[in-house]
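User: For documentation purposes, I need each entry recorded in a consistent format: the amino acid sequence on its own, followed directly by the corresponding structure tokens. There are two entries in this batch. Please keep commentary to a minimum and don't merge the entries.

Assistant: Recorded as requested. Entry 1:
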Amino acid sequence: MTKRKLSWLIPVVLLLLLAGYRYYRDSSQQAADMVQLTVVPFETGGGWGYKVMVDNRSYIYQDVIPGIAGNRPFRSKDDAARVGQAVVEKLMAHQRPTMTLTELLKMQVAGVQ
């Protein structure tokens, strides 16, 4: 290689290395900032409920159907898990983790009228 080509190649390689390092650092920081949200259905005395876990710690404990009058548990594990997942999706979208009667009816949750 001539000196002219070498003098051009060194700054380009250094720039690529710097860009790669910054990308790696930023992506690893984003991964560290993310939290893990999971839904855990559980059995109650008269039905089902769910917990929303944030990094394996209980964040929301819901042992009755939210958004309706009274204290009625979910009739099925599947209903509890589906509503819990809807709450998680709201949290991930930076929305309030509430459920309305309309949303529950649309999801066809058993026992909701």
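Entry 2:
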Amino acid sequence: MKCLVIAALAVAVGACAPITPRQDLVGAPVPADAASRTVSISPATRYVNVIGGDVVRFESAGQAFAWNFNASPIVSVFALNQVAPSGMLDHEVLVYLMPDPLYNEGSELYARSRLANPWHLVH
């Protein structure tokens, strides 16, 4: 019985641990001039909110990089440290990623794109 309880507890704790997605699932680096907005990361910054499809330039400690968040819809949160240049961030900064509204089934843009493309009826 004790072994069963310990095993169940181990599985529950493991399920709570954050999963680090593969880098290709969270977007791709882009030239800094491609960014549509800039976010300055300070020691107090704990998270940033972005929308799928955003291209953001991040600045911290005199360094900068830009990222295109053309991410997988299965990714909703990941550590910016995973994609930032080595040594740029001295603390963890989480990215909370909202799905691209263009691909949201409830959006008007999605509905228009489906109506304009008859191939969506073919499975």
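Summary note for entry 2:
The CA atoms of residues 88 and 123 lie 45 Å apart.
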